Amino acid sequence: MRAWIVLSCFALVSCTLTSARDELGAVMQREVGKTLADPDSYRAQHPKLRIGARKLANGNTEEEYRAGFRDQCPVFFQVDRDTGKVTGWHFGAPDDDCILGAPLFTDAPKQK
Asked: Range of 82's domain?
């Protein structure tokens, strides 16, 4: 019986962590189609979180921003060179900070 309870708790926590990352992913997905001129865009609302940009082989630009819990999750937006619209995005790397809220469990030291 105890094993079942522990397994159920573990499964619940795993689903919660996945959905928290999915929530941030949904926020970033809503950026597709938006331009920097859109006041509702992540890029317009968080200019200080921009890390940098680079030109891609297809002529578009890839812009890197900090996002997520503690603003420590790297996200990349591909911006169309002609329209300035975000055409896609991706996380920089799997990370405990790539969620909207505080992680339930973390080994990372707290930042001051």
From this structure: 2-91
Q: How many domains, the chain? A: 1
Looking up tokens 């926020």 gives 27
Answer for the pair 99, 22: CB distance below 8 angstroms, yes or no.
Answer: no
CA distance 10 to 22: 18
pTM: 0.73
CA 104 from chain centre, in angstroms, equals: 17
Q: Give buried/exposed letters for 43-72 (b at 16+ CB in 10 A, else e).
A: beeeeeeeeeeeeeeeebebbebbbbbeee
pLDDT in tens, 7-31: 555 555 555 555 678 899 999 999 9
